[in-house]
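Key result, reporting period 2: structure in, sequence out.
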């Protein structure tokens, strides 16, 4: 089986604005995403996986405050349009897909466009389990309440085919950083994955540099690089009799503005 993995697209197609001080190309991300889908389909991928931060929702919507004017109503229609554009693009490929939200997604709007995002799906002898986990105190993710109950139920499911678990945040490897990329309960999650004997592969996003394939107690873990920065990378994982292999692809083979005229605007002085 071939699984294409794209993560952290941070699309702003209809959503206004840009991220400050970032090399990310939020406004170009959707157009390049369409190119990536064409290449993925041509490569014969059996399934496409998107592990969160599908669009880039402004902070004033994700963390509204009643101290200032709530700007959410101004942004929500555009956010919905961007999710719908992603869904239309995925549906048009004809390739089955799984998609989950990340911490830069607006969960209610995401669910309105992708109502089956957390549905467990069996496909070609594998079971795909996606989670809608969240950040809690101090931006630390935690598999909590209903998502933890779903995990426990899936890991205990009798006669389950090999499972592939999808989450935005990282169960493993541990990232040394002042920012909490890993789950607060990461050790518990990885232990349960291993003890179940059912989890073959775990895919994540969130950590923008990504990681290579790494194995822990019989479970293979991988984190995709963020898609929204040139050269807009994605991975294809091949699951076969000889194990799991990873190949990284670059959507753009040359800078997107190479050979195009440049205009520089400056003020006097």
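The corresponding designed sequence is given below.
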């Amino acid at each position: 089986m071939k699984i294409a993995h794209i993560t952290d697209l941070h699309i702003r197609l209809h959503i206004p604005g840009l991220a400050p001080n970032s090399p990310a190309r939020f406004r170009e991300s959707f157009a390049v995403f369409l190119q990536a889908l064409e290449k993925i389909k041509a490569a014969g991928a059996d399934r496409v996986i998107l592990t969160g931060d599908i669009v880039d929702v402004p902070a004033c919507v994700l963390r509204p405050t009643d101290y200032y004017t709530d700007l959410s109503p101004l942004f929500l229609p555009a956010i919905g349009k961007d999710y719908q554009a992603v869904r239309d693009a995925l549906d048009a490929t004809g390739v089955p897909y799984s998609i989950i939200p990340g911490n830069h997604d607006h969960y209610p709007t995401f669910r309105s466009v992708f109502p089956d995002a957390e549905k467990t799906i069996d496909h070609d002898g594998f079971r795909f389990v996606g989670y809608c986990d969240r950040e809690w105190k101090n931006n630390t993710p935690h598999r909590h309440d209903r998502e933890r109950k779903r995990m426990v139920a899936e890991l205990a499911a009798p006669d389950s085919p090999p499972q592939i678990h999808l989450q935005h945040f990282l169960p493993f490897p541990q990232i040394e950083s002042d920012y909490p990329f890993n789950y607060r309960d990461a050790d518990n999650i990885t232990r349960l994955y291993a003890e179940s004997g059912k989890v073959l592969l775990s895919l994540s996003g969130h950590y923008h540099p990504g990681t290579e394939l790494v194995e822990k107690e019989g479970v293979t873990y991988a984190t995709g690089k963020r898609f929204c920065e040139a050269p807009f990378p994605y991975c294809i994982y091949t699951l076969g009799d000889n194990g799991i292999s990873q190949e990284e692809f670059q959507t753009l083979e040359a800078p997107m503005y190479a050979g195009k005229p440049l205009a520089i605007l400056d003020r006097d002085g």
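The two ends are 61 Å apart (CA to CA). The mean pLDDT is 94. This case is discussed further under Risks and Mitigation.
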